[in-house]
Amino acid sequence: MKIIHSSDWHLGKIVNERSMLADQVIVFNRLIDEWKTSSADVVIIAGDFYDRSLPNRETVRAADQLLERMMNELPMPVCVMSGNHDAGERIAYGKAAYQKAGVYLAGLPQKQPECVQIGEADIYLLPFSEHGFIREIYQDSSITSLQKAAQKQVETIRSVWNPDRLNIVVYHGYVTADSLEDERGGLIYSDSERPLSIGMTEYVPLEVFEGFDYVALGHLHGGQKVKSDRVRYSGSPLKYSKSEANHHKHYLEIDLTKTAINVKKCPIQPIHDLRVYATTFEEAMRHKSEDYVYFELEDAHPIHEGMNRLRGNYPHVMSLEYPALYQEEKLQEVTRYLQVEKVMKTPLETFDSFYQEVLGQEITVKQWEYVKKAWKEAEESEGEACD
């Protein structure tokens, strides 16, 4: 079984008030051209086909054209699933008509998860939904998190699956092999990913999907595996934030059997790359680029009309920052604050105010006990040294 795994197309994405749609249309049409000559058995797009639940008319027109090409020109079936950015009802629009031509649109969760049978494989599609929606589907009050929602859906799949076939599940969310106590779940993030829920309730442990031959994941924009080659995020096909500048975008080509897996990363060439340049203004003006560029200027003072002057050499410049100046200003601000506090308050009062200023929250009773104990020990230690 050969699988093409992609995700997070985010059609209609706007980055720094700049529409990415023109780039997306060209790149995604190129992908379809590549897949036309592929020997793959299925294409999977694991959520966030659109960037918004209410895409504008230009985005809908582009989506219609891309889906029509996949329906009419690709020799293999295609599975397109909704993510947390999509509106499931819109992904599923025209579902029955597309399915007759081999394009399976999964927009809303079903009590019996949708299964697409292709050759020796059963592909189970789990569109994104809040856990409350899954709780209503199953009339199960114990479903109080995304983890419990996923567990219920997977249990339903296991009740009907054939373990002798290749069992593949498509899921959109945070799946981690690390402890749920880990603040980031051992995953690699980017700034363009929208949180799914509050705190750690959005994470699903890897063991929930134990037994599947392949878990095709969407949501994270950086391609990565979760402990095993059989559990992978393909990542987004284009860079959608400054934090993704160092990503190497690709889709995955998976050769899968019950006993073996081979993963090939197929690179995707953008129309305009997205880069971060940390340099001086003078050095920047010696070069030109059509890429999307974020500048972090190292100059000792702001440059007059800096953005407009850079735009002459970099027509797609995204932003201009002065990180060193910002850090210096913050240091001066903290220093002034501490100087004032030192005059007005005791050391412990100063620490209390500083803690609230920096973290934006009050110190807890237990933490305050540690602070007072440490201060008392420091005073006693200083007194002994004087003796």
From TrEMBL:
Residues 1-222 form the Calcineurin-like phosphoesterase domain. InterPro entries: Calcineurin-like_PHP (IPR004843), DNA_Repair-Maintenance_Comp (IPR050535), Metallo-depent_PP-like (IPR029052), Mre11_N (IPR041796), SbcD (IPR004593), SbcD_C (IPR026843). It holds the Pfam family Metallophos. GO terms for biological process: DNA recombination; DNA replication. Residues 272-357 form the Nuclease SbcCD subunit D C-terminal domain. Keywords: DNA recombination, DNA replication, Endonuclease, Exonuclease, Hydrolase, Nuclease. Heterodimer of SbcC and SbcD. SbcCD cleaves DNA hairpin structures. These structures can inhibit DNA replication and are intermediates in certain DNA recombination reactions. The complex acts as a 3'->5' double strand exonuclease that can open hairpins. It also has a 5' single-strand endonuclease activity. This is Nuclease SbcCD subunit D. It comes from Aerococcus christensenii.
